[in-house]
Amino acid sequence: MSIPPRIGFIGLGVMGRAMAENLVKAGFNVSVHNRNRLKTTGFADKGCEVAATPKALARMCNVVITMVSDPAALDAVLEGPEGVFAAGFDGSLLINASTVSVEYAKKLKDRCFAERVRFVDCPVSGSKPLAEDGTLIMLAAGEEKTVDEARPILLAMGKTVIYAGPAPAGTALKLCVNLIVAGLTAALAESAILAERLELDPKLIFSVLNESPALNCGYFRMKERNILEKDFPPAFALKHMLKDARFMLKEADGRGQRLPVTEAIEKVMTTSYKLGEGEKDLTVVLKTLAEEYRKARAI
Ligand code: NAP
Known about the structure:
Layout: E1 6-10, H1 14-25, E2 29-33, H2 41-45, E3 49-50, H3 54-60, E4 63-66, H4 71-78, E5 93-96, H5 102-114, E6 118-121, E7 124-125, H6 128-133, E8 136-141, H7 144-157, E9 158-165, H8 169-197, H9 203-211, H10 218-229, H11 238-254, H12 260-274, H13 285-298
Parallel strand pairs: 1-2, 1-4, 2-3, 4-5, 5-6, 8-9
Antiparallel strand pairs: 7-8
The structure holds NADP nicotinamide-adenine-dinucleotide phosphate.
């Protein structure tokens, strides 16, 4: 940017906290806002300004990055009398990293155009450890010159920027990639359950995966402890993947396409969510499949 970026970061959850910290580490001027103000204290200690509202934050900044849960959360921080757009954010840059629907990302692109705000649709691939290491994959979409301008900021949070095309292609790409993550998680969980029913130690599955040049996948290693210890501390909360699966199904359906495998996984995740597991890591489907679906079979 010709004017030095003054970044306002909104959403200091599992991902946003780590991403904002990496921007601070990279030397950017960062101010923050989070609905629950408790999560801002670490940033205030680092000398970052903390804004009471998204509007107040946007007034201090020429770049706003949003990393919140979903479309409703984005509406809450962007719209209304205390939202970012109420700040007269004209000419500035909005980078949305939250995963939303393609429909919502398109609506946001149009909204930014109407407000003369430049927009980068930039969901991220990679979970908590990659956010902490600053090695996320940034799935950027928008006008190429705007993405180029945002690139130094994006590269403080990620190791690479993949340019997907005009917005909302970043969100479209993110949903395609997350479909694979949902499938891999369900496959790991069902495989571990089948192993137990066959009186095999599920650890043996990971021994094979880790030795195999074809199946030795970082995601499997990342989730090995959760699966083997049946412990699901949140890295990527089930509620977020459930939201994404519903977006995938809706977008596909709107284009006359069924995704039967994702439909089945969405049903399992819905059961898990209804059992109160939404805040746990998405690998918690293992518990749901092992307990609920066994019970259902026994009836
Ligand atoms: P998270 O830990 O649940 O944090 C969600 C953030 O959104 C918090 O800052 C929360 O504020 C804020 N928020 C929620 N509802 C709000 C509302 N109505 N108004 C204002 N703020 C609101 O989520 P996360 O894991 O960081 O994920 C954030 C986004 O990135 C999601 O779209 C997710 O799908 C996507 N994502 C996650 C991962 C991952 O592995 N975790 C990876 C890639 C992409 P409070 O603190 O006040 O609740």
